[in-house]
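Design review, sub-item: ligand-bound model
Attendees: FS, YL, KQ
YL presented the inputs for the S-adenosyl-L-homocysteine complex:
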Amino acid sequence: MGLDSNAVRARMVQKLAAQGVSDARVLSAMGIVERHRFVDSALANQAYEDTSIPIGLGQTISKPNVVARMIELLLGGRADASGKLGRVLEIGTGCGYQAAVLSHVATEVYSIERLRGLHEKARENLRAFRLANVHLLFGDGMVGYARGAPYAGIIAAAGGESVPGAWIEQLAVGGRIVAPTVMPGGRQALVVLEKTPSELKQTVLEAVHFVPLKSGIA
Ligand code: SAH
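KQ shared the predicted structure:
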């Protein structure tokens, strides 16, 4: 990897487009962020494959098309004058990859991780990229991060039994939450919540397989 990773990423982006990702901002961000720098060097050759990858402490990084699909849902065609979404909260920083992708489509990214080891790993991984709009936080994301609220978007990288009330409270009117959530029957599905002035509109989409959303820090 290295010199030719641009070409490998370009192929990944072509594949994402063929799989139905159409927001140009998402495709561009996926083409920019060097995914192989976020995984163990022994796994770097798999970084652009359509596969999830272990990132340590029993956690995984989602496959590229799940990352792209969720960010596309988060944007939902919305943009400010700069073409970006406003402030975004990510629950589950993991290795920091998705936070880096988000930094190219949102004005500010607040990303919270409950495992200190991964929070530190993400800090290390992201250092070289110098992304001034990414704010890494160590804590329990189930309570959100009130100081960055209200958010134009909240995206969860871990699946809970329901969408925590704090996320809904910290969401701006017109904002969207994209969160893997356990459905009655026990399977996880991708849930999109949209906050309008009068209601919270819920859409349940395809089945997904995320690590569990857990409370507390470790
Ligand atoms: N977006 C990440 C994927 C990380 S996997 C990436 O690009 O690498 C999901 C992460 O969610 C795990 O690191 C897990 O520790 C974290 N997580 C689970 N419950 C959490 C919570 N309540 N608050 C913050 N992080 C949580």
